[in-house]
Amino acid sequence: SFDSHFFGGIWAELLGTFYLTIGAMLFALPMGIIAAIYLTEYATDGPVIRLITTCITTLAGVPSIVFGLFGLAFFINTLHLSESKSVLAGSLTLALMILPTVIRSSEEAIRAVPRTYKEAALSLGAGRWHAITGVILPAALPGILTGAIISMGRAAGETAPIIFTAAVSVGKPLSLLQTLTQPTPALSWNIYNLATEHEAMDEIRHVQFGMVLALVSLVLILNIAAIVVRARISRKLKG
Asked: How far apart are CA 188 and CA 2, in angstroms?
């Protein structure tokens, strides 16, 4: 963009939103699946596990602005992942925000797999871990991906968590290496910024509407891609 979005395009905002969304999924999906496997296949029922489950459920309802403040305090001010805002810090913050949803959806998907699958694998000599990774997880993968699709849409559209950790009003498109240390414009933040704080907000309504359309389209494209992958996996499992 040029002259504070009076002219030019929104490539930097599109790319920044893509970086933040994919980065959040890269962190949240493995951690969420591992946590779900532990809670469903390894943990024994008791007060500690019930407390952990309650905390996970509670975190899913925490306002997103709280995650933004936590990301600023922990990732930037304590761990010093970057000198100030960065895509890395924003992605980690978004990952923590969607992690409870990923864990709960993965748990439900794993529990929905018939126990006879695991029993058959164990009776054939497979170890517990091999039965989980070779039999249970592939069968639960469509359900896990459904939770990932929901989480991905939320991560792409959130504004509050990235205000303090990743987003700036104006900036250039970043390379992959720059995401580790540099902040980025993002569609959700810039839509809010242009609609409320821009000096000529009424004159650039078309830019605001264009950003909204671009954000919805980006989320739709990411969701369609994930749905296609899920459908292909389901077809392979059905033979």
From this structure: 19
